[in-house]
Design a protein that fits this description.
Strand order of the largest sheet: 1-2-8-5-3
Cofactor: heme
Shape: globular
Family: Belongs to the cytochrome P450 family.
Radius of gyration: 27 Å
Structural class: alpha+beta
InterPro entries: Cyt_P450, Cyt_P450_E_grp-I, Cyt_P450_sf, Cytochrome_P450_Monoox
Mean pLDDT: 86
CATH topology of the domain at 132-395 and 458-517: Cytochrome p450
Helix content: 40-55%
Low-confidence stretches: none
Binding site for heme: 466
Pfam families: p450 (PF00067)
Length: 519
């Protein structure tokens, strides 16, 4: 034993003698030179993606400064103009990625070969700390099972039953604005109001009642100038804005970082989750006492769902993941869409007047509830919403990762490639629409059967198409008609808006408008 120990000591001593600062420097230089040679000479020649046109390569920071500069969709639109609708770009440390803004390429990834493309697991880890493994973030068989369970809650028949809730929320919104106008307008015939947070509150109330049978009373608290019971609305709004954490959330351990904004985000997440469990427990209690009075909303279906083989229902954690998903993703996309729509109405008063005239002619005036047939007759209003979503989609991009080798529009794509899908950029291209940067709702007034459906993708398409797109369209149409029927909307000259990408692409700063009641 002693001889073995002695030999080990000799080896250790020899190793120490051979390792000098000089040798460390030499080995480091050789290693660095080898890495540089690989990066600049071998990798560009051997890359499977080398035939895809794209940006100059940087092995350290990639093209990320270009990605992050300017407004949302700005740099990617410039890439398409310069390189075409399929572009090779580089993430940090020179990792190659693709950007696809071609209708055929998007169709291939989202529809034809959708099973080959998943959401990148690494990127999803950060978001799952908020949403859990609900419908938006699940993949494969799990996603298909969840979607099959949830689909009935968002079909046309279910949406029709939600219209009274949408209308009630719309009335609360207009009452709030009338009340605020009376207090703010002074000697003017208008009042400058921050309305972005009102739209968030209204959307939260709507999704809460329609999907979960729960009243957040967010708009009512605004009308009464009181905080809602749990402070959930404010926590939601801070979480949606990202709390200034956009770059930190790319780190797998971001929630452990010793920063004030991280602490606040964790506190907001805890607040929202507390409310979510309250919603679930309230629903369970209702179902135990009043099973014959089921509303058949989303949470009813989730709580009562049973596995066909085991007979087990969803755990509280699984229920929490789904409720978090629909509360955050559901009300954020709708409120953001409405913000862009109302901003376009303020920018285009002639279009606003057409929407107003249509609403005054079609919406009931005798207190009768707005019907599905009424909504269906709002043709120009529908066109305004589609044109806004074409130019300013709340979700202009999404990420996918290839599971297996594939070919997209003639380019070989190796397994593992991360692809940035950009339907928002595609919808702004001349190949998709004539005069694409012009706001022109009339382009959607005379659609024909030969219109390419893959040129208009604000809700994506295929198995991962937004499950709530009918919900969102119906709510936005009804709220737009109700608001414009009662108010003239103009720009507040204090503000100019930019497209800012967070969870969704939102107006920055939050929307403020010059509001005046219609005579």
């Amino acid at each position: 034993m002693g001889s073995v120990f002695s030999e080990l000591q000799q080896l250790y001593s020899s190793a120490n003698e051979s390792i000098t600062w000089y040798s460390i420097v030499i080995y480091s230089v050789i290693l660095l030179a080898s890495w540089v040679a690989y990066c600049w000479l071998i990798q560009p020649l051997m890359s499977p993606l080398r035939k895809v046109p794209g940006l100059p390569w940087n092995p350290f920071i990639g093209n990320m400064p270009d990605v992050m500069r300017g407004q949302a969709m700005e740099s990617s639109s410039e890439w398409v103009e310069k390189y075409g609708p399929i572009v090779r770009y580089h993430f940090f440390f020179g990792t190659e990625r693709l950007m696809v803004a071609h209708p055929d390429g998007l169709k291939h990834i989202m529809v034809n070969n959708s099973k080959n493309y998943i959401k990148p697991p690494g990127r999803m880890k950060a978001i799952k700390k908020f949403l859990g493994n609900g419908l938006v973030l699940s993949d494969g068989a799990e996603h298909r099972a969840q979607r099959k369970l949830i689909n009935p809650a968002f079909n046309t028949q279910s949406i029709k039953k939600m219209l009274p809730v949408f209308e009630s929320c719309g009335k609360q919104l207009t009452e709030l604005w009338h009340s605020r106008y009376e207090k703010l307008h002074g000697d003017n015939n208008y009042a400058d109001m921050e309305v972005g947070s009102d739209l968030l509150s209204m959307s939260l109330d709507a999704i809460g009642q329609c999907a979960f049978g729960y009243k957040f009373n967010a708009l009512e608290s605004s009308l009464k100038k009181t905080d809602d019971e749990s402070g959930t609305t404010h926590s939601f709004q801070r979480m949606i804005s990202g709390g200034g954490l956009s770059w930190k959330m790319m780190l797998p351990f971001w929630d452990k970082l010793p920063f004030e904004d991280v602490r606040k985000m964790n506190a907001d997440s805890a607040m929202v989750q507390k409310t979510v469990f309250k919603v679930i427990n309230q629903k369970k209690a209702q179902l135990e006492q009043e099973e014959e009075k089921l509303t058949h909303d989303l949470l009813d279906m989730l709580v009562l769902a049973r596995d066909e083989e085991t007979g087990k229902g969803l755990s509280d954690l699984e229920l929490k993941d789904q409720v978090m998903t629909f509360l955050l993703a559901g009300h954020e996309t709708t409120s953001t869409g409405l913000s862009w729509i109302l901003l376009q109405m303020a920018n285009h008063p002639e279009c606003q007047q057409k929407v107003r005239q249509e609403a005054q002619e079609i919406l009931p005036k005798d207190g009768t509830l707005i019907s599905w047939d009424d909504l269906d007759k709002l043709k120009y209003t529908h066109a305004v919403i589609k044109e806004t979503l074409r130019l300013l989609p709340p979700v202009p991009l999404t990420l996918r990762q290839a599971l297996n080798d594939d070919v997209i529009c003639g380019y070989f794509i190796p397994a593992g490639t991360i692809i940035l899908l950009c339907p928002g950029v595609m919808m702004r291209q001349q190949d998709s629409f004539d005069d694409p940067l012009k706001f022109n709702p009339d382009r959607f007034m005379n659609e024909t059967n030969d219109t390419n459906p893959y040129n208009f993708l604000p809700f994506l398409l295929g198995p991962r198409m937004c499950i709530g797109h009918k919900f969102a369209m119906a709510q936005m149409k009804l709220i737009l008609a109700m608001v414009v029927r009662e108010f003239q909307l103009a720009l507040d000259p204090v503000y100019t808006y930019k497209r800012k990408q967070r969870i969704t692409m939102r107006p920055d700063p939050s929307l403020s408008l010059r509001v005046c009641p219609v005579d």
